[in-house]
Amino acid sequence: MISEQLVDLSRLQFAATALYHFLFVPLTLGMVWILLIMESVYVMTGNVIWKDMTRFWGKLFGINFALGVTTGITLEFQFGTNWAYYSHYVGDIFGAPLAIEGLMAFFLESTFIGLFFFGWERLSRTQHLMVTMLMAVGTNLSALWILIANGWMQNPVGATFSYQTMRMEMVDFWTIVFNPIAQAKFVHTVSAGYVTGAMFVLSISSWYLLRGRNVEFAKRSFRVASAFGLASVASVIVLGDESGYTVGEAQQTKMAAIEAMWETEPAPASFTLVAWPNQAQMRNDWSLEIPWVMGLIGTRSVSKVIPGIREIKAKNRVRIESGMVALAALDALRLHRDDAAALQTFERTKADLGFGLLLKRYVVDVRQATPAMVDQAVEDTIPRVFPLFWSFRVMVGLGCAMLALFALAMLSTLRSNGTHKRWLLRWALWMLPVPWISCELGWIVAEYGRQPWTIYGVLPTHLSVSTLSVGSLYGSLAGFLAFYTALLVVELFLMVKFARQGPGSLGTGRYDSEPATGSVPA
Amino acid sequence: MFDYPTLKIIWWLLIGVLLIGFAIMDGHDMGVGTLLPFVGRTDNERRVVINTIGPHWDGNQVWFITGGGAIFAAWPIVYATAFSGFYWAMLAVLWALFFRPVGFDYRSKIHDPRWRSTWDWALFVGGSVPPLIFGVAFGNLLQGVPFQFDANMVSTYTGSFWQLLNPFALLVGVVSSAMVTLQGGVYLAHRTEDEIQRRAIAAALGAGAVMVLGFVVAGLWLRFGGIDGYVIASSIDHATVSDPLAKTVARDAAGWWLNYRSQPVLWALPALGIGGALLAMALAFGRRTGWAFVASSLAIVGVIATAGAAMFPFVMPSSSMPNASLTVWDSVSSRMTLELMFWTTLVFMPLIVFYTGWAYRVMRGKVTLSQIEAAEHTAY
Question: Does the interface predicted TM-score (ipTM) exceed 0.85?
Answer without folding.
Answer: yes
